[in-house]
Here is the input.
Amino acid sequence: MGKSLGEVKQTFLFCDGGSCRKAGAENVTRAARAYLRNSGNWDETHTIKTRCNGRCEDAPTCIVEDGHFWYKKLTPEKVVEVIESHLEKNQPVEDYLLYAQDWKAVKSEDERTKFKIKPFEWESHPELGNCQITKGLSSDQYVYPLFDYLHKNVPGASYETASGERFFFRELIELRYTKTVELEMIQEDKTVELVIGAVPKDDQELKKLKITNTHYFYQENSGKVGVRFANNKNELIGYLFLGKPNEKVWEYCTKIQLQNNRLESISV
Ligand code: FES
Here is the structure.
């Protein structure tokens, strides 16, 4: 029989995203679970591994519910202290807190400035010719939503691989992101895979395929907008062609992907 959820009083959410894993999240989670088991608190608590919680600079992180307490830079020793304090005294451990409900700001020693998309600039691009171009974000938290949006809303958008194979989103039977790092675009007769997840540092083959550079552009010649994907050496992986800049999809790109950076005015 599974856990009786009605008895669970406290839930601990451990970040298992790339930065937290690098900073020792697995050992933190193991120490927490071992403590909960051995202290006889297993049935009244619940532990969950999450993906990135958006506070990578404070890795490894953990959230304690009830109470909405965020903890930073945990170690196996600190996490046991935190759990003990919540379960036995119903108190957070102030020194390790990153954020608690109703705080105005986080308490971080390593706060990063938010990545800012640069304004579009005109350039003469070796592949695109004269264009307005800017660099977007390449993590799977941006790339997958972009493809998901196109799959659900823009049948006329197309993707072209570096070898020149092109297909329209209307031809996709399914868009699947269930593998560890690959996004699969499944058509009737073939599947195109794009590497969009975090790849192991020493896997050169995957690194070569991973989308690391994402550029949004307006091409003067064609009057069309699109996205260029490349690897960490800026070698082409593929293109998305999105039509004219006055179409709804470009409004989506501007607002959701480009922090409201707009093209310099052009006549369409
Ligand atoms: S990977 Fe844990 S907060 Fe980002």
